[in-house]
Amino acid sequence: MACSHRFPWVNTYKKSAALIAVAVALSLASCSSPPPKSLVTPLPTVTKPPMPTKPALSKEPVRGVWLTTVSRLDWPPINSVNASPANRIHQQQQALTDKLDKLKSLGINTVFFQVKPDGTALWRSSILPWSDMLTGKIGEDPGYDPLKFMLDEAHKRGMKVHAWFNPYRVSTNVKPSTVNALNNTLSLQPASVFVLHRDWIRTASDRFVLDPGIPAARDWITSIVAEVVSHYPIDGVQFDDYFYTETPGSALNDNATFRQYGQGFASKADWRRNNTLLLIEQVSRTIKQLNPNVEFGVSPAGVWRNLSHDAAGSDTRGAAAYDEAYADTRRWVQMGLLDYIAPQLYWPFARQAARYDVLANWWADVVKPTHTRLYIGVALYKIGEASKSEPDWTVNGGVPELKKQLDLNESVPQINGTILFRENYLNQPQTQDAVNYLRSRWGD
C-alpha cells in the first residue's frame, strides 16, 4: 500500500497481548476445533476502548439510504479519478458533502456507506489495500480517509453512518486486467487477499470470491470488521446479501472444501448454511465485545423461503435466500444475532409473486417475538422505470406506490424504518416526483 500512515499497533502485533483477546473473540464461532490460522495476514491488534453506558434506543424511525461505491455507482464521481491528487480529493469530498446536504434536506437520518465493495477498503486499513474506486489503482493512497471524512461530515449533520461490507467478494469480474491488477499488489503493504491467500479464492457469478467454507477466511473477514469497529466511531455494521453467490453458468466450486470441512452434514446445502451462520455469529459476538453500541445488521434478499417449500415461509414465488444464497436469515433473527434486519422488498403491492405487503407483514411476524429491529429496503431504483410486470412504478411518477409502501411501514409497529436503494437515484429525472414527495413527508 502506498500509504504515508501506519497504525502503530501493526508493527508490534506479534508481541502484543491484545492479540490474544482478539484471537479469543474470533474463536467464538461454534466449531468443534480451532480453525486453521492464517500464515500471512495478521489479525489486527485492538485495544478495547472504555464503553459509555449504552443509551436508550432512539424512538425516531430509520430513514435511510444505501450509498454505493462499487463501480462508483453513487460515489466517488467517475471523473474525479483522473484529476490531479489535490483536485481529486476536493471533487470527492465536495461530492460527498453535497450528497449529505441533500440527504439531510430530505429527512434522511442514516447512511449505509459501502466501505468494502470488494477485496479493497475505503478506510486506512492494515489488512486490505486501498480501493481502486478512489484513484483508479488498487493500493494507491487517496490522500485522505474517506470513512473518517464521511463520519465527520455525517455526524456534524446529525446523521448516523453504518459501515456496509460485502464480506466475500474479491472482484467484480475475472478479466485478465483485473487479475493483473490484483497480482501487482504483491509488493504492497498490505497486499490483496487474492495473492496472499490464493487457496481461499474461487470463481462464482463471474467474479473472484472467498470460499465461505474455509474457517480461516471467516476469521479474516471478522478481523476486517474488528479493525473498523475498533478504530472508527461508526454507528453500525451491515452485511449485504452476497453470501454464497453463484449463477448456473458460474457456480462456486467448493467440493474440496466440503470434503475437508463438511463431515456430519446431511447435505452440502446444510453445510453451506452453517458456514454462513458461523460467520454471522462470529462477527456479531466480536462487534459486541469491541463496542456494544455498534449495531450489527444484514440486508438479505426479501424472500427467506416460499410457502411452497416451507410451511413457515411467505406466500410468495421469489428467489429465496435460504435456498439460493444459503442464508437462513430467519434463524439469525430468532437466535438474537442481529440488532436489525433490512430485507430488500423491491416489489410493488401488485406483484403477485412477491407482494410488498405480504412480505413486510411476514417479516414483522418474524421479528415480533425477538429484540431484532426491522427496516424495510425499498426499490427507489425502480421508480419511474417502465416495466410490463410492475407498471405501478410509473403511475403518477411512482408516488402512489411509494406512499403505500411508506404508509404500511409506518403503520406496522414492528417496522422501525425504511431504507432507499440507492442514493444516486435521488438525482435522476424519473424519480423527481417521488423525491419531492419524500421531502414533503420526511423533510424539515
From TrEMBL:
Glycosyl hydrolase-like domain residues are: 62-394
* Keyword entries, A-Z: Signal
Q: Which InterPro entries match?
A: Divisome_Glycosyl_Hydrolase, GH, GHL10
Please give the superkingdom of this protein's source. Answer: Bacteria
The residues the entry assigns to the signal sequence are: 1-29
Task: Give the matching PANTHER family.
Answer: GLYCOSYL HYDROLASE DIGH
Q: What is this protein called?
A: Family 10 glycosylhydrolase
